[in-house]
Amino acid sequence: MSVVSKFLFLDNDFKNSGVAQADWSTKQMVWIPSEREGFQSASIKEETGNEVVVELDNGKKVTVSKDEIQKMNPPKYNKVEDMAALTCLNEASVLHNIRERYFSGLIYTYSGLFCVVVNPYKLLPIYSEKITEMYKGKKRHEVPPHIYAVTDNAYRNMLQEREDQSILCTGESGAGKTENTKKVIQYLAVVGELEKQLLQANPILEAFGNAKTIKNDNSSRFGKFIKINFDNTGYIVGTSWKSLGVSYRPKIERSFHIFYYMVTGAKDKMRGG
């Protein structure tokens, strides 16, 4: 597996392991609450009324309420690309799947129509021109989960159905909304053949609403609505930005990037004035 492939494609060695499947089949595997990890795996040993005795991975036995137990999926569903395919679709299984994929370098996971992204807080080699070409014109199930797949799907639907399309990026501060929005624009700029102009304008426009905070060096301090217009052949013909700014900021945090850019680029006489 190449350096790039390990951040996109799943290694099936574990999920296809006969040993893992046999081990799961002989035990009644479940999830129980854990203060440290959210949930932890256990096997049912005894049931009495509304309580269950379970054995943890370390061999310790504990008693929990039946209401606290959540079913575990078979090993073949480990690190599944689309969580809508899970047999047991519960909170513990969803968190486990996302976590296992993340620890394997797979930051994108589908959940039905949604694409769940976990911020890796580092640069990954999965946004190159070669990767862009890999997703062009492909159906979502034909390629690994990626923001490019979501974007291409919206682009193709626009061309085929002649209807406007929307991609909504949500999450808490530092979740990666700004970066994934950039990737959406980057992909559309390539397929719409207006890459250079659009990508160079993005950081300038972004500077008017982004600022450094305690949690994030490039936090969006405003809501963004980006509109990209295409002609009937799929080429970009224009774009517009609308924003709703945040006026309040704590004293320990910086103001918008644009003010620091202006000061940095200003002549000494202007700075002193």
UniProtKB/TrEMBL annotation:
GO terms for cellular component: cytoplasm; membrane; myosin complex. GO terms for molecular function: actin filament binding; ATP binding; calmodulin binding; microfilament motor activity. The keyword Ribosomal protein does not apply. ATP binds at G171, E172, S173, G174, A175, G176, K177, T178. Residues 25-74 form the Myosin N-terminal SH3-like domain. Residues 78-273 form the Myosin motor domain. Keywords: Actin-binding, ATP-binding, Calmodulin-binding, Coiled coil, Motor protein, Myosin, Nucleotide-binding. InterPro entries: Kinesin_motor_dom_sf, Myosin_head_motor_dom-like, Myosin_S1_N, P-loop_NTPase, SH3_Myosin. One of its GO terms (biological process) is system development. It comes from the Eukaryota. Belongs to the TRAFAC class myosin-kinesin ATPase superfamily. Myosin family. This is Myosin, heavy chain 11a, smooth muscle.
